[in-house]
Amino acid sequence: MRKTKRYPSDLTDAEWKIPRSLLPGHNRPGRAREVELRRVWDAIQHIAAAGCAWSLLAKDFPSVSSVRYHFYRWRDDGLLAGITHAESRA
Questions:
Q1: 9-30 burial string, b = 16+ CB within 10 Å, else e?
Q2: Domain that holds residue 86
Q3: For residue 57, is it within any domain?
Q4: pLDDT score of 44 more than 90
Q5: Residues 6+ apart with CB under 8 A from 32
Q6: Is the residue at 23 inside a domain?
Q7: What pTM, to 2 d.p., does this model score?
Q8: What CA–CA distance (Å, rounded) separates 50 from 34?
């Protein structure tokens, strides 16, 4: 059991190292990213752990539209599968 300031599904700093190393870096020139990817990742983990609908995502996470955008993008790019594979080897 983890002791976190927020939710049991949130990653510890040590656990965050794997997804952080595989997630995309800064955006190309242009509009700056407005959300922290760790917060997006924690929101995705929260949805999965709680089994709740997107619309029930707690308000202290980034917006549902941002989380959903990143989730589908990472899924379609194969990034989520890559992270799962990397975690299973760790």
A1: bbbeeeebebbeeebeeeeeee
A2: 36-90
A3: yes
A4: yes
A5: none
A6: no
A7: 0.81
A8: 25
Tokens of 76: 């379609």
Q: Please count the structural domains in the chain.
A: 1
Cα angle value 57/58/64 (rounded, 5°): 45
Residue 70's Cβ-count burial label (10 Å; 0-12, 13-18, 19+) is buried
Confidence of residue 32 (pLDDT cuts 50, 70, 90): confident
The contacts of residue 81 (CB under 8 Å, 6+ apart) are none
Compute the Cα dihedral for 15, 43, 54, 72 and give only its sign. negative
Average the pLDDT over 45-60 and give the result. Answer: 92
64-81 confidence digits (pLDDT tens): 999 999 999 999 999 989
pLDDT at 5: 62
State both tokens at 79: 């990034």
For residue 3, is pLDDT > 60? no
